[in-house]
Amino acid sequence: MQFTLAQVTGFIAVAENLHFGRAAEELNMTQPPLSRQIQKLEKSIGVHLFERNNRTVTLTPAGEAFLAEAYGLLASVERAPRRAQKIAEGSWGQITIGCTAVSTFGVLGSLVSTLAQRLPGVSVEIAEMVTAEQIKALSEGRIDIGLGRVGRIPETIDAALVLSEQLVLAVPSDHEFAARESIATKDISGQRLLMHDATKARYFYDLTVRYIDVEANEVAHSLSQILTIVNLVAAGRGIAVVSESAARLGVEGVTYVPLRGAPRDVVELHAIWNPESRNPALKEVLSLIRDE
């Protein structure tokens, strides 16, 4: 089934005027070529669109149905050039954001809200994954930008710092450390530690072993998801070194104690992306992140 835009335009003109002569005049053409256009259109789709006699022209039921679709088709054609321009400008399209669990608190919500206000033509998809998975997804084109913890930034990606915060110790609320205003990293000894996995959560694993003498403690579990870690702390299964934003998870029975002996802004959250990406919307999203 093939038909042309000129045939559809001619059909709409005849359907609105119910008169071939007036429709041809409206289209700045003569009646015979318009009649041939309609005949070719009817042959192409295999139905009669009009009932004709010497006095009147009326739409068939099939013609009435086709008219509704023809209006939509014509509108789509008229929108297409501007939509293509918007996509090229980056103000239209789709962006997929990979994020860690904690980045959904504050940073991700604020970013998505800003995108909705400033780039309403860009739809946003969210994929929750740890940073190592984000880097792999960026290389494979499955996400456009990530929000993750990056210790060493690979040469294959670019990054921009979006948040820095301090390390805290998550302890059960009835733990002896819970009543302290802060605790020195060197004083953590003989505790059951809930560790971040050395492979899937390498960033926090490295921070923990950098500032805590892990060998002076017992490692109860090695995990990759912050929510699981904090819930196990609440259950009394151990204590854990986490970022201060973990408190936003709102898990009851957990107290967060500031750590002395680690730099104030040692925990960093970066926006990461593939500089080879061909998604025009990415440039606009990065501009918004830098503005924020």
What does this 3D model show about the protein?
Helix content is 40%, strand content 24%. It has 292 residues and is an alpha/beta fold. The chain folds into three domains: 5-89, Winged helix-like DNA-binding domain superfamily/Winged helix DNA-binding domain (Arc Repressor Mutant, subunit A, Orthogonal Bundle); 93-148 and 275-291, D-Maltodextrin-Binding Protein, domain 2; 167-262, Periplasmic binding protein-like II (D-Maltodextrin-Binding Protein, domain 2), CATH 3.40.190. The strands form four sheets. Strands 4-3-5-13-6 form a five-stranded mixed beta sheet, sandwiched between helices. Helix 1 (5-17) packs across helix 2 (20-26) and helix 1 (5-17) crosses helix 3 (31-45). The radius of gyration is 31 Å and the shape is rod-shaped. The model has no long low-confidence stretch (mean pLDDT 87).
